[in-house]
Design brief:
The complex is a heterodimer of chains A (about 290) and B (about 100). Chain A is an alpha+beta fold and about 290 residues long. Chain A contains 10 helices and 13 strands. Chain A has a 5-stranded antiparallel β-sheet, with helices on both faces. The two termini of chain A are about 25 Å apart. With about 100 residues, chain B is mainly β. Chain B has a 4-stranded antiparallel β-sheet with strand order 1-6-5-4, with no helix packed on it. A two-stranded antiparallel sheet of chain B has the order 2-3. Chain B is globular and about 35 Å long. The two termini of chain B are about 20 Å apart. The chains are: A alpha+beta (about 290), B mainly beta (about 100). Chains A and B meet through helix 1 and strand 2 of A and strand 5 of B. Chain A: InterPro entries: ATP-grasp (IPR011761), ATP-grasp_RimK-type (IPR013651), ATP_grasp_subdomain_1 (IPR013815), PreATP-grasp_dom_sf (IPR016185), Rp_bS6_RimK/Lys_biosynth_LsyX (IPR004666). Chain A: It comes from Amycolatopsis melonis.
Chain lengths: ~290, ~100
């Protein structure tokens, strides 16, 4: 990369999503290139020209956080911001911030020991969901129905993690949902598409095979997404919502900073890459005007 | 993560026959390597040494699968007709959305 580009897309590997984004950005007259972490390093060290903005699309949470932090420190705006990435990569931070800011969220506790998990189960009422703080795609997320399943979970954890480094984990009330949850794609501050994710598994990650179907963006969805973006700032997010069958109210499960969209776009028909490219172009104009 | 592989582009016949600073300048290129007016960029698989086809305009980070052995490679550089690859990264525990 010898010429400065408008948008440097930080990647761990190029997925169909980033290919679509590159095409959409270039279609708007922006220059765009992909960069691996070593390329970002060259920019930080001044041996490669700085882009107008860094679009962070790393699969690796560690890489995403560090390239965003260092780019911002070097005066290069990162999308999403490093602060937003920190929150999105940590379900525990989200639980605390959602509670503090009145964003509806399943009751959640941090647990630092197996005994803590047991106490949380008694406090919340079984079943409970145990989540690693920073896992994705449903990895490591389990539903514990009571002390017996907790003992099985603890035994498995101990064999793989004798030192207990997996702690803390998030222990969350299990929300009975109507056979699906919702994934809402947010660009800037606006929800642009909502999809129902259905699965025979209680986990509804599309990575685990859930099917998707477009659904209406209701006022309550818009309100919840606004509450989330008020908290983490405008950006590109996948906000997961769940309806509690007891009171029919939506709750925010989590917010993701690097949502995948290539496969689901084919189902719901909304061109996420084009909308995101519009947003990036607008943000770059703002950055340049402020410089 | 494997080591870097230096790849030879399949340039049009009229293109200068320069490769990378690390290539043997006296190497004898075969018809397969230079092609017939093709602009496709190829590389060799880091596992079985078969030719990889990185397409006409590979981007950094793109994954290229070896048609012979199935090994996936990641494009780490693609400038001036020269492409470099490494073995594609494996899924790690911090990967996700």
């Amino acid at each position: 990369m010898t010429e400065p580009v408008d948008v440097l897309v930080a990647v761990t590997m190029l997925r169909p999503e980033e290919r679509l984004l590159l095409d959409a950005l270039r279609g708007r007259g922006l220059t765009a290139a992909t960069g691996l972490t070593r390329d970002i390093g060259a920019v930080l060290n001044g041996t490669a020209p700085a882009p107008a903005a860094l679009l962070v699309r790393n699969l690796s949470h560690r890489d995403a956080a560090q390239v965003a932090r260092r780019a911002e420190a070097a005066g290069i705006p990162a999308l999403n911001s490093a602060a937003a990435l920190d929150v999105c990569h940590d379900k525990g931070l989200q639980a605390l911030l959602f509670a503090r800011h009145g964003i509806p969220h399943p009751r959640s506790f941090h647990a630092y020991t197996d005994e803590d998990v047991a106490r949380c189960g008694e406090e919340l009422g079984w079943p409970v969901v145990v989540k690693p703080l920073s896992a994705s795609w449903g990895r490591g997320v389990v539903r514990l129905t009571g002390p017996e399943t907790l003992a099985a979970w603890s035994g498995g954890r101990e064999s793989a993690d004798a030192a207990g480094k997996a702690f803390p984990v998030l222990v969350q009330e299990y929300v009975e949902k109507p056979e699906h949850d919702l994934r809402v794609i947010v660009i800037g501050n606006q929800p642009v598409v909502a999809i129902e994710r259905r699965s025979t598994d209680w986990r509804t990650n599309t990575h685990l095979g859930a099917s998707v179907r477009r659904t209406e963006i209701t006022e309550s969805i818009t309100l919840l997404c606004k509450q989330v973006t008020d908290l983490v700032g405008p950006g590109f997010y996948g906000v997961d919502l769940v309806e509690d069958v007891r009171d029919r109210q939506l709750r925010v499960l989590e917010v993701n900073a690097n949502p995948e969209f290539a496969r689901s776009s084919r189902e719901h028909g909304v061109n996420i890459a084009e909308l995101l490219a519009d947003h990036v172009a607008e943000r770059i104009r703002g950055f340049l005007a402020a410089a | 993560m494997g080591g870097c592989s230096l790849l030879r582009a399949v340039f049009p016949a009229s293109a200068p026959r320069s490769c990378t600073p690390f290539c043997d300048p006296d190497a004898e290129f075969t018809d397969r390597e230079w092609g017939e007016m093709s602009t496709a960029i190829v590389a060799n698989c880091l596992v079985c040494d078969s030719a990889l086809d990185a397409g006409d305009a590979p981007e950094k980070g793109e994954i290229v699968e070896c048609g012979s052995c199935g090994q996936e490679h990641e494009v780490t550089g693609a400038e001036a007709g020269v492409v470099t690859v490494e073995l594609a990264p494996e899924v790690e525990e911090d990967w996700g959305e």
